[in-house]
Each structure stands twice: as structure tokens, then as C-alpha cells.
Amino acid sequence: MSEVQKITKETIYYGKKDEGRIVSPDARTNYKQKAFDEKSIYEYIMHFKPGFNGFMDLAYIAGIGEKAENRSEFTISLGVRPKEAEYLYAGIGAGIAYWFTSERLSTPIFAHVRGDIPIKRKFNPFADIKVGYSFWDLNGWYGSFIAGMRFKLTKTSAFNVGVGYQFQERYPIQERKPNTIYLSNHKKFFEGLIFRIGGEF
Questions:
Q1: Measured between alpha carbons, how far is 174 from 121 in angstroms, rounded to an integer?
Q2: What mean pLDDT is reported for the chain?
Q3: d(CA 182, CA 176)
Q4: Cα–Cα distance between 140 and 142 in angstroms, integer?
Q5: What's the distance, CA 198 to chain centroid?
Q6: Model pTM?
């Protein structure tokens, strides 16, 4: 009962309203409800509570594929989680990744969308998507797809663990001579398996 926000009761009328009179009693309609109630939409907007939310995540990405390279990543995102749909989240974020082999950095800026499976417990599964673009040393399209578990700590905080897939578009760095490296002229997608832990506030 502590999770119940509102309890209301409506009277159901049978028939169709026509200038205050009920006609066609065989038709089942709500006597008090209009087909398109602008007032109801206005009241919903006025009572809409966005519920701001944020995430801080630390990840390790194990490179896979032909151009495999391992890296570590830290990201933070801020957005809204509506109280009317508390299992949905949408926001924007940024991060920084360090590539071990090339010893360079990338800084992704992304849109973040997440959905939690509504299980009324202290833990529940989730899935999230981050899509954006990276800048700095290694630039190109960026994206990650994660599935994991959310562990509720307090009313406003939680701990998250997840695994998934990540890609990063960038110019490959190759060796041409001893102790000399150069960037190729064509971008490649560097793929990886991502292992992520983080906090929610």
C-alpha cells in the first residue's frame, strides 16, 4: 500500500450523451468523458513529475574481431525518469575511454535510453542503449548495448551490473617502422565485449 499513489472512483453511465440527455441506451459509453478532453491533457501536463536521475559507470571492454583492442571507460549521464513511468529513463551523457595498445583517449558524447523490467523487488533486470559520437584522439561513431541487473540500495540509489556489446569507429593505428606508428586513411569499427559496474543516483 505504501506504493499506491492515488485511488479514485468513477460512475459509469450507459448510453450516449446528447445535450444533457441519454440516448441509445444500448450503447455503452462513459457519460462524463468526452472523445477528446483538452482539460484532462492540461491537468496531466501540470501534474507531470519528471524525476531526475543519473548514472556513473565504470567498464572494461575486451576487444573482439580483426581490429581487437582492449580499453577501459568511465561514463556519466543525467536524465529523467518520470514518476508515472518509473521503469523508463532517457538522458544524455559523456565519458572518457583509454585504449591500452595505442595509448590514446576517446571521449564519447551520447544519448542514453534505459528500461527496467518492473519486478516489485530490491533487484530487477534492465537493458540500456547508448549511441553517440567520440572526439579527441580517436573520433567516430560510438554505441553500446547492455543487459544486466539493478540492485536497489535506497529509495533514490541503486547498484548496477551488466554485460553487452560496444562499438567505436576510429582510424586504426598501425606500425610502419620500428618505434613509428601512423593512422590509416580509412575508419574501422572496433568491437568489444563490455563488462560494466556502476551506481545510480
A1: 50
A2: 81
A3: 7
A4: 6
A5: 14
A6: 0.70
